[in-house]
Design brief:
It is globular, with a radius of gyration of 16 Å. With about 210 residues, it is α+β, with helices and mostly antiparallel strands. It is built from 6 helices and 11 strands. Helix 1 packs parallel to helix 3. It has one domain: Clam (outer membrane lipoprotein receptor (LolB), chain A). The two termini are about 25 Å apart. An 11-stranded antiparallel β-sheet has the order 6-5-4-3-2-1-11-10-9-8-7.
Amino acid sequence: MNRFLRTLCVLVMLAVVAPALAATDVEAVKQRVAKVDVLRGEFTQEKQVAGFKNPLRSQGRFVLAQDHGVIWTTLKPFPSEVVVTRDRILSRQSDGSSRVELDGRQQPAMRSVNAIMFALMSGDAQALSAQFTVKVEVLPGNGWKMQLTPRSAMLGKVFAQLTLSGDRYVREVQINEANQDVTRIQFAGMSDTPTTLSTDEGRRFE
């Protein structure tokens, strides 16, 4: 899996982690996390690349739709957008002037990662537990913390460990990549209404 594809997979994983919690077999966490059809929010991301002193920072917003996929929109420092469906990953500039599309039918590794992501989104606990070792800590005040460690060699080439924490929604994520890059992200302003996509959101999945 090349570096560009790995980076896209990391971005998408950050966008879909909220429903991932509802898919685990840890009842205490399952009861605390909202399971929604559409989730919108904002993110602040900091990526520490191995060998570089200063982290890369970005901000933006996301839309997660259970029946469609994820729209991950970076606003700062450079506007861009990543759209993920079951069969593809589409990266494009905000004005649509430049786009890169990866077809899951031609990228078996990418399709495998997408399958795991959609298992998280659909609540397929069997598929999730087959791929990740899960460790949960229940915290006071409706809080929780979760660590996911890949079981498969394929995922192990991308992720070393994912750490998530939150309450009704995921609030913070840390992704330790296999190449020693570390991504930290904070989510804010999340809302599960309206429960359907707008015309513009639907168009961006096309």
